[in-house]
Amino acid sequence: MAVPKKRTSISKKRIRKNFWKRGGYWTALKSFSLAQSISTRNSKSFFV
């Protein structure tokens, strides 16, 4: 028979959420940096 799971604590939930958000922050930062280097034509790894 199915048994309901225990509730996750608020602090654990917040930690997981912040960890997930941090990954998105670094991805956005890298993409912005790449776009900036392409617009100034200083990119060495991306050819237009």
Automatic annotation (TrEMBL):
GO MF, any single term: structural constituent of ribosome
Upper classification of the organism: Eukaryota, Viridiplantae, Streptophyta, Embryophyta, Tracheophyta
Subcellular locations according to the entry: Plastid, Chloroplast
GO CC terms: chloroplast; large ribosomal subunit
Coiled coil: none
A GO biological process held by the record: translation
Primary location group: plastid
Keywords tagged on the record: Chloroplast, Plastid, Ribonucleoprotein, Ribosomal protein
Name of the protein in question: Large ribosomal subunit protein bL32c
Listed Pfam families: Ribosomal_L32p
Residue spans crossing the bilayer: none
Family as reported in the entry's similarity comment: Belongs to the bacterial ribosomal protein bL32 family.
